[in-house]
Design brief:
single chain; 308 residues; alpha/beta; Indigoidine synthase fold; 2 domains; six-stranded mixed β-sheet; five-stranded parallel β-sheet; binds pseudouridine-5'-monophosphate; binds manganese (II) ion
Amino acid sequence: MNEYLDISPEVQAALAENRPVVALESTIISHGMPYPQNVETALQVEQIVREQGAVPATIAIIGGRLRAGLTPEEIDYLGKRGRAVAKVSRRDMPLIVSRGQDGATTVASTMIIAALAGIKVFATGGIGGVHRGAETTMDISADLEELAQTPVIVVCAGAKSILDLGLTLEYLETKGVPVLGYGTDELPAFYTRTSGFSVDTRVDSPQEIASMFAAKQGMQLAGGMLVTNPIPEEFSMDKAIIDKAIDEALAEAAEQGIHGKETTPFLLARIAEITGGDSLGSNIQLVFNNVALGAQIASELCHTSSAS
Ligand code: PSU
Ligand code: MN
């Protein structure tokens, strides 16, 4: 095992016995939602993964150690400290680890740690992408490069329109990342089920996703796959309301000169405030929906995994 990594005994046993494991990220806990909903959600997410017959592995950096599988106390700690915990993407890992600090892992760094631990499926809410205006700011999330190089299936609810969805899809195409729509031909836009942009292909079962990933790995094609899972109809938001909140949040971010790694957490928090918490409720529900699918894909992969 990697000398910087600690895998919880429960996750270790599941991996050793070829039982399904689902990785979960911690930036969504510390930076993506307010306390206490963040902790409640993270604990419920673990419960849902278990109900689906898989083992949850929430990933973070604690005291400079890469961790796969946290205790409820550790999840509470990350949620309570919130934005005081460093948001750690690929480039931040060396300094946080060498200084023995704590870090909340993004999609990119969660993928890295999952891959080190031998976990192939990771479920979350939304990924980072190409930001609107990236043609001048060059603000492109490291999540996209990670999908290009690290072999983990990422289940999300598409991307928020704080991003430029068209450019995000172009980037993923250039980098050779398959973008699958679960039960849909259209890229879901996180709070809403449609975006007007097409995914590469529609898939209708966890089994199909598992066999595509096995084929990808069997051909030694580097990188992961993105599974986009639309928010359940009953929790989806009115497009006009969410678009207005996003535009307002983007304008405030520009006014206040928010940039770099602060951009995404700032926008998420403002959108939740502007919609009076409605967007937070939807956000929580789509995460639940994604982790259940993640557990089903992980289970399928346990039957398909002879190619690795
Ligand atoms: N999008 C969301 N919720 C989140 C994030 C993105 O809807 O919590 C977080 C994820 O951890 C993602 C990160 O990896 O923000 C992307 O940040 P950046 O754009 O700085 O790469
Ligand atoms: Mn960025």
